[in-house]
Write a structure and sequence with these properties.
TIM Barrel, four-stranded parallel β-sheet, 8 helices, disordered N terminus
Length: 321
């Protein structure tokens, strides 16, 4: 049971395709496990650690340094986490959650992150409001979460009832985006039509206006735009992500999206899940990150966080509780 529990400390909160490393008694070696959906918990080749550092240390501690006390130590809550946990026997599930969240456990998590709408560790794309044009949020709900993520949160709260949470979205509902979908590029992993890819890629220099090529309906785009160039991450993502707003720039959509945050917080509060911090977009500070760029360009990020004075006071009062 000890080996299984230690493995699951990595697995329950890092899922899908996973590689995790578990320390052993030896200071210069570790056991390497590789997990995929087809082949779970495979033992990989044993790797020895080098005693010589590959680079100069970024930080050196002498033991006399004055440190900072963290307010909390936490983890993420996702649908695939729940799926992995429920592969275990009930008593094994309890042991894993105790060691993750209990005050006398191993990791003692007191903070949780969750997402409004789906993220990359959800089973599939979904949102809390799928009714196009629902600016009054009449159909906004968290019923999907009650059957999934909230069930996982309940298991954590059993061992850490004072846990607090923060949230961020990966994508607005599809009906709020110009391509009417969650992703921005077609692939075998989503249902977006290939014809919409022209919204993402820049025209070739030989076709500055994006004229159609010889094949009807196909825009002339740079086929190498998604490739690395000399290892420069700055060219990893299509250049047009910096100039194309995928979120519909209409005051009705912007206000409704801002209101979604407030309603999401209120509905989770009704479930005794306190959210006291909001990040309006996942990976908001990483240049050219598609999770950031596929919703708003750099200049438009402030649009969704504009709130009235009354709304701001209500949020401040809520967070101070």
């Amino acid at each position: 049971m000890k080996k299984l529990s230690l493995a699951l400390l990595c697995a329950v909160f890092q899922l899908s395709t996973l590689t995790c490393q578990l320390s052993t008694v030896s200071a210069q070696s570790f056991d390497h496990y590789v997990t995929t959906e087809q082949q779970p918990w495979q033992t990989a080749k044993r790797v020895s650690l080098s005693a010589k550092g590959a680079a100069a240390p970024v930080l050196t501690l002498t033991g006399q340094d004055q440190g900072h006390v963290f307010k909390a130590w936490g983890t993420c809550f996702n649908e695939l986490d729940l799926d992995a946990l429920e592969l275990l026997k009930p008593e094994e599930q309890e042991e894993v959650m105790r060691r993750l969240f209990a005050p006398d456990g191993d990791l003692r998590f007191t903070r949780g992150r969750l997402t409004m709408n789906a993220n990359d560790y959800s089973r599939a794309w979904y949102s809390c409001d799928t009714v196009a044009g629902d600016f009054q949020l009449k159909y906004f709900n968290i019923e999907h979460d009650k059957q999934n993520v909230i069930r996982l949160i309940r298991k954590a709260q059993k061992y850490q009832p004072q846990m607090t949470f923060w949230m961020s979205p990966w994508s607005p509902p599809a009906w709020m985006k110009i391509n009417q979908d969650y992703p921005v590029c077609s692939s075998e992993w989503n249902t977006q039509a290939k014809e919409k890819d022209y919204l993402l890629f820049s025209p070739l220099p030989t076709s500055p206006k994006g004229e159609e090529s010889g094949q009807e309906g196909e825009a002339v785009v740079d086929p190498d735009e998604m490739k690395f160039i000399d290892g420069n991450r700055g060219r990893l993502f299509p250049k047009r992500l910096a100039t194309q707003d995928y979120f519909i720039q209409d005051p009705r959509y912007l206000q409704a999206y801002a209101n979604m945050f407030c309603k999401f917080i209120d509905l989770y509060a009704e479930e005794n899940i306190p959210i006291n911090m909001v990040m309006y977009q996942s990976y908001f500070d990483e240049p050219n990150c598609p999770m950031k760029r596929t919703n708003f360009t750099e200049q438009k990020h402030g649009a969704v966080v504009q709130v009235t004075k009354r709304e701001l006071k209500r949020l401040i009062k809520y967070w101070k509780q």
